[in-house]
Structure formats: structure tokens, C-alpha cells
UniProtKB/TrEMBL annotation:
<dbReference type="InterPro" id="IPR000836">
    <property type="entry name" value="PRTase_dom"/>
</dbReference>
<dbReference type="GO" id="GO:0016757">
    <property type="term" value="F:glycosyltransferase activity"/>
</dbReference>
<protein>
    <submittedName>
        <fullName>Phosphoribosyltransferase ComFC-like protein</fullName>
    </submittedName>
</protein>
<feature type="domain" description="Phosphoribosyltransferase">
    <location>
        <begin position="134"/>
        <end position="221"/>
    </location>
</feature>
<comment type="similarity">
    <text>Belongs to the ComF/GntX family.</text>
</comment>
<dbReference type="InterPro" id="IPR051910">
    <property type="entry name" value="ComF/GntX_DNA_util-trans"/>
</dbReference>
<dbReference type="Pfam" id="PF00156">
    <property type="entry name" value="Pribosyltran"/>
</dbReference>
<dbReference type="InterPro" id="IPR029057">
    <property type="entry name" value="PRTase-like"/>
</dbReference>
């Protein structure tokens, strides 16, 4: 009763088009849900990340839920997730992709899900990592572990020191480091992020994680730039 009343005063809006959601709709309206640009080619070697990261990352499998286009519905969705505090949306997207990955049999080949970490300052401003729910929901669907204590991001001030002395690619490479690597040695890791554009962040994370013995890297993202 109270919830209905609250909904009347503060109606829940679709994360893509801002229309008021119906009672049975969650996060995304039915119209948008059917219109969203789903990324279908995520199986094995056909994902664009294999091309993007070729020669840079030893990549096993990759998956993305959506195509991203500037000014498109996925831009609105990710904006909602990052800047409007809609962190439950992250779980929702993770359940969605997790279901697809489960159907594709990924639960047999993923041991641990690791999110790309946020800058500490961003974390303070936002209060949450926008890929946390996404990663946790996927881990749950695939019966894998979720851990955010291994892959770390250096603070901005430390990056500045590197900037003056090193090439740009090395700067990015040095933005991430990993701890307790023995916990993941020999494991199949699923690295998760929100949006892939150049793949530079994912490559940097791989370099940090690859310090561990015998890991296999898989990647899942909410979206990939068209
Ligand atoms: Zn909508």
C-alpha cells in the first residue's frame, strides 16, 4: 500500500527512455527491452574483443550484452547506472547476461568473477562500483566466486608521477595492480566491465592479473562500442 503510494509520488522511470514504468516492469520498459541493440556475436571467437585485443591479450572467451552508440538507449542506460544512483540496474543487467552465459554453458568454465575496479575518488563520489552488481549477478548464475580484493586501481596522484616519465600505454598499464594472486593461480577468470571502447583498460587489467600463474582470461561487458 505504502509502496504504491510512494510510486505515485515518485514514479519509477525506464532507465533508457524515462517513461513511467508499469507495476510489472523493472528498470527498463517493455518497449525498450525489445528495442535495445543486443550484441549477439558473443560466442567463442566471434566477439569483437578478439579483434580489438589481438596480440595484446591472451583471451579465452568474451561476451557483451549490448551495442553502444552515442546518444542511443545504452548511453542513457549507462548514464543512469553511473550518475543517478541506479545500482540495482547493475544486478538486473548481470542477471540478464548471466542467464545467456548459463545457456551457453559458461558455468563449466568460469571459476571467479573479478570487476574492473573504480578510482578510489570516483568510488567516494559515487558510493558504489557500477559493475559490482553486474559481476555478482553473473557469478551467481554461473556458480562462480566473486572477488574485488585482488585487482586494484592506483589512486590518481600516483598516476601523475608515472605520466611524466613513461609512454601513455605504460601509464595505463601501471594504473592497475593485483594482490593475493595465489588465490587465482590456475583459474579461469571472468573480468567484467561496463563499456569497451579501445580495450586499453581491459588490457591493463590483464597485465596485472597475468602475474598470477596459469590464469585463463574471459571478459564480459554490459556493452561494446559499435
Ligand atoms: Zn523505455
Amino acid at each position: 500500500m505504502f509502496k504504491d503510494f510512494k510510486n505515485l509520488l515518485f514514479p519509477k522511470l525506464c532507465a533508457c527512455c524515462d517513461q513511467v514504468l508499469l507495476k510489472e516492469e523493472a528498470f527498463i520498459c517493455t518497449f525498450c527491452r525489445h528495442e535495445l541493440p543486443l550484441y549477439a556475436n558473443f560466442f567463442d571467437g566471434h566477439h569483437d574483443l578478439h579483434k580489438i585485443l589481438y596480440g595484446r591479450v591472451q583471451l579465452e572467451r568474451a561476451a557483451s550484452l549490448f551495442y553502444f552508440e552515442k546518444k542511443g538507449p545504452i548511453q542513457a542506460l549507462i548514464h543512469d547506472l553511473k550518475y543517478r544512483g541506479n545500482k540495482e540496474l547493475s544486478f538486473y543487467l548481470g542477471s540478464w547476461l548471466g542467464e545467456i552465459l548459463f545457456e551457453a554453458g559458461w558455468q563449466r568454465s568460469i571459476d571467479v568473477v573479478i570487476p574492473v575496479p573504480l578510482h578510489r575518488q570516483r568510488m567516494r563520489e559515487r558510493g558504489y562500483n557500477q559493475v559490482e552488481g553486474f559481476g555478482k549477478a553473473i557469478a551467481e548464475k554461473l556458480s562462480a566466486k566473486y572477488t574485488d580484493t585482488i585487482l586494484k586501481r592506483r589512486s590518481n596522484s600516483k598516476t601523475q608521477v608515472f605520466k611524466s616519465r613513461m609512454a601513455r600505454s605504460e601509464v595505463i598499464g601501471n594504473n592497475f595492480y593485483a594482490e593475493h594472486l595465489q588465490e587465482v593461480s590456475g583459474q579461469h577468470i571472468l573480468l567484467v566491465d561496463d563499456l569497451v571502447t579501445t580495450g586499453a583498460t581491459l588490457e591493463a587489467c590483464y597485465l596485472a592479473l597475468n602475474e598470477a600463474e596459469g590464469i585463463k582470461l574471459n571478459i564480459a561487458t554490459m556493452a561494446i562500442t559499435k
